[in-house]
Design a protein that fits this description.
It contains seven helices and nine strands, in the order ββββαβααβαββααβα. α3 crosses α4. By secondary structure, the chain is of the alpha/beta class. The chain is globular and about 45 Å long. The protein has a nine-stranded mixed β-sheet with strand order 1-2-3-5-4-6-7-8-9, sandwiched between helices. It has a single domain, classed as Rossmann fold (3-Layer(aba) Sandwich), CATH 3.40.50.1820.
């Protein structure tokens, strides 16, 4: 299931507002924006997560009580209002949620302007350049740092940590489960790219290192391009004894992200219900 060069489903929708999205300067490991308790009981704070390469800007959402920690890995366009809303929604369901900017080495979020359109070659080149800077070594040290940061927060319980990723984030979720099997109890990939390939570092080959429960939601157009991918992915998980579901959804790449060209509300809600069921049974 390689990542398409031009997954039109994640093209920018200008109707999605960026109001209130700007991030202030980040101090290492500390919150920098005054937290506000909203009517839904969720507090949102802009935070800086220390990593071996610097400080990752991120948004942290939590309720009034400590809850299991979850990390959201955005798609290739990065941290933006749609993912903040997903973080808030997940926190309101009973989790303490860290939504990260995967491109923090290059720029603070948001990394694209309001006029961004993935279908435009010049716009696409910007994010694909940022994506190209995310080496496996960097991804692994980042994800370990996110797990450790959550473990230090008073709003996070000692339960296992969950990861959920979209588009490129799907492969990162698999790596997170493999490099921190001691702490990652659940991983979910939605229209994930690059999960199965012939490369020796293909994420599906990490299955023997995974102890988490996994859910893979495959886009129907991705499946049409690489139908054997889902079979190879499920076999790898089964052979390793990983409890995993691999399902093709009746929606195209990007269907889970509000504001994307491919957003499919019924299938997005079905994926959301599956995510909550996964976390309920695995984050203990």
């Amino acid at each position: 299931m390689p990542l398409d060069e031009d997954p039109a489903g994640i093209a920018h929708d200008p109707k999605i507002s960026r109001r209130g999205f700007g991030l202030a300067s980040l101090a290492v490991g500390t919150a920098v924006a005054a937290p506000a308790l909203a009517e839904d009981g969720v507090t949102e704070t802009d935070v800086g997560v220390p990593t071996p390469d610097g400080t990752c800007d991120a948004a942290f959402f939590h309720g009034k009580k400590a809850a299991p920690g979850v990390v959201i890995i955005p798609d290739v366009v990065g941290l933006r209002p749609a993912f903040r809303r997903m973080g808030r929604r997940l926190a309101s369901a009973g989790y303490s949620v860290l939504v990260i900017n995967p491109y923090y080495r290059d720029a603070k979020a948001p990394v694209v302007p309001d006029t961004f359109d993935f279908a435009k070659p010049e716009d696409r080149a910007v994010v694909m350049g940022l994506r190209g800077n995310l080496t496996i070594a960097r991804i692994d040290t980042d994800t370990a740092a996110f797990v450790d940061w959550l473990g230090r927060q008073k709003q996070v319980t000692k339960a296992k940590v969950g990861f959920t990723g979209y588009c490129m984030g799907g492969a990162i979720v698999v790596r997170a489960a493999a490099i921190r099997p001691d702490r990652v109890g659940a991983g979910a990939s939605w229209h994930g790219g690059g999960l199965v390939s012939a490369a020796p570092d293909s994420p599906h080959l990490l299955a023997p290192k995974i102890k988490a429960q996994m859910v893979f939601g495959v886009a129907q157009d991705d499946d049409a391009k690489y139908p054997e991918g889902k079979t190879l992915l499920k076999k790898a998980m089964d052979d390793a004894g990983v409890r995993a579901t691999v399902e093709v959804y009746k929606a195209n790449h990007g269907w889970c992200v509000p504001g994307s060209a491919a957003y499919n509300e019924p299938e997005a809600e079905r994926a959301w219900a599956e995510l909550l069921a996964l976390y309920k049974r695995a984050l203990v």
